[in-house]
Design goal:
This protein is α+β, with helices and mostly antiparallel strands. It has two helices and eleven strands, in the order αββαβββββββββ. A hairpin with a 2-residue loop joins strand 4 and strand 5.
Length: 161
């Protein structure tokens, strides 16, 4: 009888171990696909850098106006000194979060929703602002002005289509 209890305990431990392994494997798969989706994102930029180190240090930059184009697909992501940097189009240039402007699919006239209650200037707005869609009236770098009575600027990272 004592042998049977040990066997049941062993079976229970083995099932738990298998469940833990399956859960860890599933979490790895989810993280992998999240990273692939982030890499596939096309972004518009205001400044380009020659290397990821330059992008982290904000030096040796090229303004987007001096480039042949101002958008690219993220093909690699690195953290340098705690700063996220992104390689565009496998070698076009590097950018950091502060250089990413409005996604190329957002343009003046589009209806968008703010994802943050803070305006471009840092003013805290009422919570209800997150529950409505507003028309984009102006885009300048990462500054996006929303109309329809709101008439407030937001950082491009703080709006969604």
């Amino acid at each position: 009888m004592a042998q049977m209890i040990v066997d049941n305990q062993s079976v229970s431990n083995a099932k738990k171990l298998n469940a833990d392994i399956e859960k860890k494997t599933l979490n790895k798969i989810v993280r992998h696909f999240s990273e692939i989706n982030k890499k596939a994102e096309t972004v518009r930029f205001t400044t380009c850098y020659r290397s990821s180190m330059d992008a982290a240090a904000v030096k040796n930059y090229i303004p987007a106006g001096q480039m042949l184009r101002d958008s690219g697909k993220i093909t690699r992501r690195l953290k340098v000194n705690g700063i996220s940097t992104y390689l565009l189009d496998d070698g076009l240039c590097w950018v950091n979060d502060g250089d990413i402007a409005v996604s190329p699919d957002i343009k003046v006239g589009d209806k968008v929703t703010p994802t943050s209650r803070y305006s471009y200037e840092g003013v805290l707005l009422i919570a209800d602002v997150l529950n409505h869609k507003y028309t984009v009236t102006e885009i300048n770098g990462d500054r996006v002005v929303l109309g329809d009575g709101l008439n407030t600027a937001f950082h491009s990272k703080d709006i969604k289509k």
